């Protein structure tokens, strides 16, 4: 049985959310959509008024391996789960607190939330607010994802962040903050991709691109494996 057969029995809406600008929401949506498209029929929806995902997608000369839509219409958002032709719908959300109504509207129809954070205290502070104010009160399944890891800081530095999540001294009632084992390293091909309109599955497999290809592929596999083993009520 393939991962896709084992995993998807319904249209799954996955929000990528963090009320902190620049942590990588748009990047995670576009790269993960590309990886998941290897196994699933994927739609990307841009609800951020900045329209970064839309601009990235429009810049691509090569066809993206997933479908794309932008919408700020709450009624259209409510109908996303009726789009049964898709296995996975990835939603890019705004990073600004003033857009909290859009964020809540997306979370209300989401099955799973990916919460990217940089391995810095300031980024984590904002992410904890998003968890406390929006994600945990709705009882949503979520996982933190550490992005923009600087390889030169060494694995100990990253591991110490992951340990902090597991210990969770910030949010009462949560034993450890759920997180992906995989993290995403800072790399120039990922930084350049929005300007070139490309996604990770279009990168040449060479030394320069290796970290990006391997990080996003492992992230996609970890997510699909989690779906394959989850029990739904
Ligand atoms: N792993 C990475 N390696 C290199 N650059 C990255 C990485 N992740 C994100 N970036 C870059 O960091 C910047 C911010 O990323 P991105 O736009 O994805 O963040 P965002 O959370 O969507 O921001 P906003 O809240 O403004 O929508 C972009 O220039 C992007 O190319
Ligand atoms: Mg963005």
The tally of domains stands at 1
Provide the CATH superfamily. P-loop containing nucleotide triphosphate hydrolases
Summarize the amount of helix as a percent range: 40-55%
pLDDT < 50 stretches:
none
Give the DSSP E fraction (strand runs of 2 or more residues).
5-15%
Shape: globular
Query: The biggest beta sheet, please?
Result: 6 strands, parallel
**Averaging pLDDT over every residue, what do you get?**
90
Could you say what the CATH topology is called?
Answer: Rossmann fold
Tell me which ligands are bound.
adenosine-5'-triphosphate, magnesium ion
Rg calculated over all Cα atoms? 17 Å
How many alpha or pi helices? 9
The appropriate CATH architecture is: 3-Layer(aba) Sandwich
Give an overview of the whole structure.
With 233 residues, the chain is of the alpha/beta class. It has one domain: 3-Layer(aba) Sandwich (Rossmann fold), CATH 3.40.50. The protein is built from nine helices and six strands; from the N terminus they run αβαβαβαβαβαβααα. Helix 2 crosses helix 9 and helix 3 packs across helix 8. The model has no long low-confidence stretch (mean pLDDT 90). The site of adenosine-5'-triphosphate (ATP) has 19 residues, from helix 2 and helix 8.
């Amino acid at each position: 049985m393939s991962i896709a057969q084992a995993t998807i029995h319904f249209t799954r809406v996955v929000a990528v959310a963090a009320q902190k600008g620049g942590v990588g929401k748009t990047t995670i949506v576009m790269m993960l959509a590309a990886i998941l498209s290897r196994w699933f029929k994927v739609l990307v929806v841009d609800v951020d008024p900045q329209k970064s995902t839309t601009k990235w997608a429009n810049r691509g000369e090569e066809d993206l391996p997933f479908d794309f839509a932008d919408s700020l219409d709450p009624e259209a958002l409510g109908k996303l789960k009726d789009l049964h032709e898709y296995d996975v719908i990835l939603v890019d959300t705004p990073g600004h607190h003033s857009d909290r109504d859009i964020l809540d509207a997306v979370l209300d129809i989401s099955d799973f939330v990916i919460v990217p954070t940089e391995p810095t205290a300031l980024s984590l502070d904002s992410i904890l607010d998003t968890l406390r104010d929006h994600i945990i009160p709705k009882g949503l399944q979520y996982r933190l994802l550490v992005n923009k890891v600087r390889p030169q800081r060494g694995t100990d530095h990253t591991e110490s962040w992951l340990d902090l999540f597991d210990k969770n001294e910030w949010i009462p009632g949560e034993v450890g903050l759920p997180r992906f084992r995989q993290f995403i390293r800072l790399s120039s091909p990922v930084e350049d991709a929005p300007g070139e309109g490309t996604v990770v599955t279009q990168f040449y497999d060479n030394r320069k691109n290796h970290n990006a290809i391997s990080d996003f592929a492992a992230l996609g596999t970890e997510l699909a494996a989690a779906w394959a083993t989850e029990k739904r009520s």
